[in-house]
Design brief:
This protein has about 300 residues and is mostly helical. About 55% of the residues lie in helices and about 5% in strands. The protein contains eleven helices and four strands, in the order ααααβααβαβααβαα. The chain has a four-stranded parallel sheet, with helices on both faces. Strand 2, helix 7 and strand 3 form a beta-alpha-beta unit. The longest helix is centred in the first third of the chain and has 68 residues.
């Protein structure tokens, strides 16, 4: 039988043997496979890598933001374009409505009595010489509408420019010529000299009231046998031709008055053969505004 002391001795020998055979724990943790190699880290390499990564990330956000801002700007521009397009369309519709109403008013006034006829000139002015003065002299139009003056030629236009443009009239009716026939206006400027001078003066008025329509009367011929030196030598026809060409190149309205004077043979003259009685002015006024009506009575461009 094994005694208690003998058992203790055996236990001690086993423990001593186990401690001798077991490898040291410190050596076990230090051991590495031979295939594992230590990598040397270069600080410059790390810095470059971090920088590249930062730039890449920044680039992504930059282009993303740029793309977002560009899309936003395009959207705003598109909305503004739609708004402007709508406003322009509305403005055109209003203009067309006003034009149609004005056309109807003129059409009704032309065919009505004289009182309605003269109301059609309320937003207009008339410039001219003593012949045109009759519109206010006979009480058809007020002085703020008829600005004509006795003795004037087209050379006087600069003197009435401010007054003509002051009210921003819808239409400016112009009638000069009786005094111009005896003058050599623009003779030094070639075949169209008279028309060129006339044109320059009218444009001075339009600088102040650019939206006004211009209606220019051809010169009404004097009664046959009156001013023969200026009517029988073709001067009257030549000047009227210049006025017409002036209107054509500026898109102004030319009033051909030959239907009124019948080459000086119509019963429209005072005894002097140059001026007109009161009875002629409604006929002349209706003829002028009819020319304006015919010019604006066109289908507007879409």
């Amino acid at each position: 039988m094994t005694t208690k002391n003998e058992q203790n001795d055996v236990t001690k020998e086993k423990l001593s043997s186990n401690q001798t055979d077991a490898p040291s724990s410190s050596k076990k943790h230090k051991a590495r496979p031979q295939s594992f190699k230590k990598i040397k880290v270069n600080s410059k390499t790390v810095g470059v890598g971090v920088l590249v990564a930062a730039l890449a990330i920044s680039g992504i956000f930059f282009f993303k933001n740029r793309s977002h801002e560009s899309t936003y700007a395009q959207g705003i521009a598109y909305l503004e374009e739609l708004q402007n397009r709508d406003e322009a369309a509305i403005t055109e519709k209003i203009k067309e409505r006003d034009r149609q109403e004005r056309l109807q008013e003129i059409a009704d006034g032309i065919g009505a009595d004289d009182s309605r006829l003269w109301a059609l000139f309320r937003d207009s002015v008339i410039l001219g010489d003593s012949r045109a003065v009759g519109f206010k002299e006979y009480g058809f139009l007020p002085e703020n509408v008829c600005l004509a003056r006795i003795g004037d030629s087209i050379l006087a236009l600069p003197q009435v420019t401010q007054a003509a443009a002051a009210s921003k009239p819808e239409v400016i009716y112009i009638s000069y010529g009786a005094n111009d026939l005896v003058m050599d206006i623009g003779a030094d400027r070639g075949e169209d000299g008279y028309g060129l001078v006339y044109e320059e003066y009218i444009k001075q008025i339009l600088e102040l009231t650019p939206n006004s329509k211009i209606v220019v009367n051809g010169i009404i011929a004097p009664r046959a046998g009156t001013m023969t030196n200026y009517t029988e030598n073709g001067r009257l026809e030549a000047i009227n031709a210049q006025i017409k060409r002036m209107c054509e190149r500026n898109n102004w309205i030319y009033v051909d008055n030959t239907v009124l004077d019948d080459n000086g043979n119509a019963p429209i003259y005072e005894p002097d053969g140059l001026h007109f009685p009161a009875s002629f002015y409604p006929q002349w006024g209706r003829h002028m505004i009819t020319a304006y009506y015919n010019a604006i009575n066109t289908v507007p461009a879409p």
